[in-house]
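Worked example 3 (structure in, sequence out).
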C-alpha cells in the first residue's frame, strides 16, 4: 500500500523559510518520479502543481511563481522527498501534498501539511 506522510509545515512570516518533508513507503521510491502540489481549502482557488523531480534527482520542474524560491530534492536511500521554501509569500499559504509521478494525477496522497504565511 502506497503511503505518503507530509510534514514540516507551519506558521511563518512573509520572507521566512520552511522545509517540507515527505516520507514514502509501499512502492519503489527510488524509481519513481515525485511531485508536490498545493491545495487552497475554503477558497475557490484550484489546486496548483508546484514542483517535480525525476527519480535520479537529475531533472526538476517548478511553477513560475516559485522559481528561485523553492527547491525540490530527494534522498532515495531514505525514501524521502523534500521541498525547501524560502522568501515565502502570503500567496504560498496552502496545504502541500506530495505524490508519485512527474505530473499530478489521481494517485494517493497523504494528509498534507499546512503552510501559513502571515505577519
Amino acid at each position: 500500500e502506497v503511503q505518503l506522510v507530509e510534514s514540516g509545515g507551519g506558521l511563518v512570516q512573509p520572507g521566512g523559510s520552511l522545509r517540507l518533508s515527505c516520507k514514502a513507503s509501499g512502492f519503489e521510491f527510488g524509481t519513481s518520479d515525485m511531485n508536490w502540489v498545493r491545495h487552497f481549502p475554503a477558497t475557490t482557488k484550484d489546486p496548483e502543481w508546484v514542483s517535480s523531480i525525476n527519480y535520479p534527482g537529475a531533472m526538476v520542474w517548478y511553477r513560475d511563481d516559485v522559481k528561485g524560491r523553492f527547491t525540490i530534492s530527494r534522498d532515495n536511500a531514505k525514501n524521502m522527498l523534500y521541498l525547501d521554501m524560502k522568501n515565502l509569500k502570503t500567496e504560498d499559504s496552502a496545504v502541500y501534498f506530495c505524490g508519485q509521478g512527474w505530473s499530478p494525477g489521481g494517485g494517493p496522497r497523504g494528509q498534507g501539511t499546512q503552510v501559513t504565511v502571515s505577519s
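Notes: Strands lie at 3-7, 10-12, 18-25, 34-39, 48-53, 60-62, 70-75, 80-85, 94-100, 113-117. The first strand starts at residue 3 and ends at 7.
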